[in-house]
Amino acid sequence: TMMTRGTSRVARLTMGGRLFSAVKGAAAEGEKFPVMGVRWRSSLTLGEKEQVNNKNSEDGGNKEVVASYWGIKGEEVKKEDGTPWKWNCFRPWETYQADLTIDLKKHHVPTTFLDKLAYWTVKSLRFPTDVFFQRRYGCRAMMLETVAAVPGMVGGMLLHCKSLRRFEHSGGWIKTLLDEAENERMHLMTFMEVSQPRWYERALVFTVQGVFFNAYFLAYLASPKLAHRVVGYLEEEAIHSYTEFLKELDKGTIENVPAPAIAIDYWRLPADSTLRDVVMVVRADEAHHRDVN
């Protein structure tokens, strides 16, 4: 209710000042940040956020513990073993064990004009990606997931509106597509912990996502079948990219570091899992999205 130009400008300046002060103070204490030198607040666990806020309280700052994106203290959630749940970007009932029994060579042969259009559109997009990222598979995965999380949200949104307009059920497709978008977003949250994107790569994300979102939105309005075919072929390329990622890990070209904590909790992986295990489950997810689309 206060979003006028003046108040929004003050809010932006205030938030920017707080962010700068927080980063400056953390840098002075020698804290490490995995992404762009800054550990973004949205990627912190609940425990880490409480430590930050408690520290601010000791310094005479705001004593209220902020534990969610909207600045509202969230509900306390616990794991099955009774220990506190530390993530606010997903909940325990959203976790699962990935099915690794997938067919890596499965391919939908393009037969119709729309199939061929979707196939060659995706193939044409792969070339500049290979040139730009080359063998930096961590950042390639980050870019891929910022794009792959868009179709499910766009499709789910349009089917949702269609269901409202026509007063009819969706056959479960709204939830399926939104779950796909959320799963792809969790892939991004995971690779943010292991990749070091450069400033121009982050800028590229803004550009690519803006163009792709609007293009996919129009394509879905024109032909949902074409839109889903594009996603299917995009997922085929994702499977290929993650397979190459695994080969580089096996060769030792890329260090097989321990799996991020967020990945261990999301996919219910063993505590001693590595980056290779994470790539395996992500590739399995992509194969499932390929088959659905």
UniProtKB/TrEMBL annotation:
UniProt key word Hydrolase: no
The molecular function GO annotations come to: alternative oxidase activity; metal ion binding; superoxide-generating NADPH oxidase activity; ubiquinol:oxygen oxidoreductase activity
Q: What class of enzyme is it?
A: oxidoreductase
What EC number is given for this enzyme? 1.10.3.11
Q: Which Pfam families match?
A: AOX (PF01786)
Q: How does it sit in the membrane?
A: Multi-pass membrane protein
Question: What processes in GO biological process is this protein linked to?
Answer: alternative respiration
Protein's cellular compartments = Mitochondrion inner membrane
Reactions catalysed according to its record: 2 a ubiquinol + O2 = 2 a ubiquinone + 2 H2O
Where would you say this protein principally sits, based on its record? mitochondrion
User: What InterPro entries does the record point to?
Assistant: AOX (IPR002680), AOX_sf (IPR038659)
What are the annotated GO cellular component locations? mitochondrial inner membrane; respiratory chain complex
The record's comment on cofactor binding reads: Binds 2 iron ions per subunit.
Q: What are the record keywords, sorted?
A: Electron transport, Iron, Membrane, Metal-binding, Mitochondrion, Mitochondrion inner membrane, Oxidoreductase, Respiratory chain, Transit peptide, Transmembrane, Transmembrane helix, Transport
Q: Has the keyword Mitochondrion been applied to this entry?
A: yes
Task: Name any cofactors this protein relies on.
Answer: Fe cation
Q: Which PANTHER family match?
A: ALTERNATIVE OXIDASE
Q: Which family does it belong to?
A: Belongs to the alternative oxidase family.
Q: How does it assemble?
A: Homodimer; disulfide-linked.
Q: What is this protein called?
A: Ubiquinol oxidase
Could you tell me which species this protein originates from?
Answer: Daucus carota
